[in-house]
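Posting for a labmate who doesn't have an account.
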Amino acid sequence: MFKNEKVQRLIEIATAERAEASDDPPGTVYDGIVGGVVVRGLMKKPWNEADLTRLIEKGEMQMVRNYRPPVTKHVIWNGLGRWFVARRPITCPECFVYVYEQSLDAAELAEQHADYLFKRGAYKDSTGRLADPGMITAGGAKARATGEGGYYQPGGGQISMGDRRGEDEG
C-alpha cells in the first residue's frame, strides 16, 4: 500500500501540514516517507506568521512603527515577506527593516564599487581618493592591471584607456 503513488503523496502532504501547524520551533527536523521508506530529516519546519507573532509576544522581536522606506522593495526574511512601498509608512517586525536597510547598504556599496572600477569621482573620501575599502589599489598588491607604461601587468586583467600611474591614488 505504501508503494502506491497516491498514498505517498498523501503522506507527503500530511507531513508538510504537520510541520507547518505544530508549535515546534522553526527548523525542527521531521522524518517522512518516500517510496515506502522512512527518510530521516526529510523536512524542516519552515517559519510562519504564528512563529513570528510568538517572538513578538515574548519580546524577542520588536515592532518598528511608521517606518518610511525611501525605495519600493519586497523584503523576505526566513520565507516570510513584506512589501515596503516608497514614502508610505509601514509598521512591521524589526527583522524586515533590518533586511531592507542591509539591501540599501549593499546597493550603495555596489554603486561605489562601480564608480571605483570605472574611475568616476562620484564617491570620494575626504582625501580625494575614490572610496572603495574592499578594492585593492594600485599602491597595494597590484591585483589590477595598472601598468606604469600602459603594459599588461600579470594577474591584473584589462587595462583601461585612461590608466596611468597615480591616476587612482588621488
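Reply:
Got it, the C-alpha cells are right above this. The chain has three domains: 1-46, 47-135, 137-170.
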